[in-house]
Amino acid sequence: MSYIKWFIKLRFLALKNTLWKDKKAIMRTLSITAAIILGQILLTNILYKNIFSNIAISHELVNGMLIAFFFVAVIWIYLISFVQSISTFIRNFYKSPDMNYLITIPVPLNYVFLFKFFEHIISSVKSMLFLFFPFLAALGMWVNAPLIYFIMIIPLYIIISIIPCAIGVMVAMVGSRIVSVKVFNIITSIFTFAINVSFAVVFTRTQDISTTYILKLIDLLEKPWMSDIIPVTASVRLFYAMVIGGWSSYAGLFLLITSILFILIAFMVSKKLFFEGWAKNQFIETPDSKKKVIESSNFKDLKINETIQWIKIEWKMAIRNIEMLMASAFMLMFYLFSIFIFIYGGLFSTNPLIGISLLITIASIFNIIAVSILFIPADITKDKSLWKKRYWLLKVMPLEGGKVFNIQCNMFFIPAYIISIVGIIAYSVVNGLSIQLILLSILGMFFILYGSSAIYISGELLALTDFFENNAFIGNIITIVLPVLYGILSAGSIALFLAKDFVSDIIILSNISAIINLPIVIILSVTTVVATFLLSRTVFIRVWKQLEI
């Protein structure tokens, strides 16, 4: 117990020094908190107005539909937490920067595992709650839930995620002794993709679930002991009880006891497996590693353009960056998730061009970021000072800023464009769009996505200048805000023009759509893409000349 108290004090001190050290840190913390809260409120209202407010069912089926939604959400939380625990285990437990310190102090290794497990739960909650909270909050708005429901979303989410996280890390500890890390990450990435696709399909079809299955689910939840003991149904009961302003004592008690039991089991398993797994995953240079370096540095055809050759080498390294594959797949899920919702939900089937424009908007915001993550080594994700050093080899080579800009742009753009094309074609074929419109959409997406790539790499480089390094929060914001603003102005404006009838009930969007017409939208979109590319290239070249590694 003393070890746990020591660890809590240590982490609390580190957190205090990071978030509440001085006035500058306090202002940064408050700004980030305000931005997160506003973002959550915005996403909640978007989900409510565009999804839940359109669900029209009889009053008798409201409770059944509510339980069905909660059941789908809980299952998704379990599966995502389980897969995320496996895929991030090596990075968060074995290769975490503080492991070199924790492994040397006189603390039993199973307690070190327990420390890292609690940190993993917090990290998992932070990374996923921004997606789940708006969904659960919008669901509460749909049924006019009391204030206590919205307050308890985060505590309930933490409690619910403990069991799948514990199972995931145990599977990872055992699995890392059987197969390689590469195989584990590939399997979990495929599994995560299947989970998100399945959820998208089920979510869009929740309203069509047969009343027979809903009644059976309600009947199961009405069996007090059985539904209280099973963790999944107990979680559903807790959410449902909060919505109606109550509390299910037995469900909460059994869920808490079961969660503690799984933590103890993981704690005992770690006594035998944690240290051995850590030792196995330390870097050891293999005999053929030097051979691979020699082969990669030996250009077979010197006549090939150095830009293409460099991009090929970067892609080879990105493909081997298995540790960041899960993070890349997670960002890509926004685009894939939208495609499946649009297709299986039949959204904008009467005017597919709206769906095409929205998909291009989403692709311009998320797909470039998703691809770029694979080019970032996992070791530098938690150390901002190492980000700049990624460019040291390019900096010392006799390359001008314009050529480096082309390398970075094409490196991210080509894979992102291929992925985006597949989604656009799939949606267009399902909705019967003509070949001419499909080709026009693909061509338009080419220019918009290339501009997105340009603004992303310029914003990333700009965030590494001295000013933004001293103001890290602003530097992080520009890498997010600029692509979002660009996507809205370039493709989002087209979607808004086409969707005048769909946004008539949303006052702000309706007022904007009323004053725009086709010539204005075309001029705005083309000007945004051209100006963004030229400005991004100019900024990149100037910053590149002044950047000191």
Automatic annotation (TrEMBL):
The chain crosses the membrane at residues 25-48, 60-79, 99-118, 125-143, 149-171, 183-203, 247-269, 325-347, 353-380, 412-430, 436-457, 477-499, 511-535. Keywords: Membrane, Transmembrane, Transmembrane helix. Coiled coil: none annotated. The keyword Transmembrane applies. It holds the Pfam family ABC_tran_2. This is ABC-2 type transport system permease protein. It comes from Alkaliphilus serpentinus. The lineage of its organism: Bacteria, Bacillati, Bacillota, Clostridia, Peptostreptococcales.
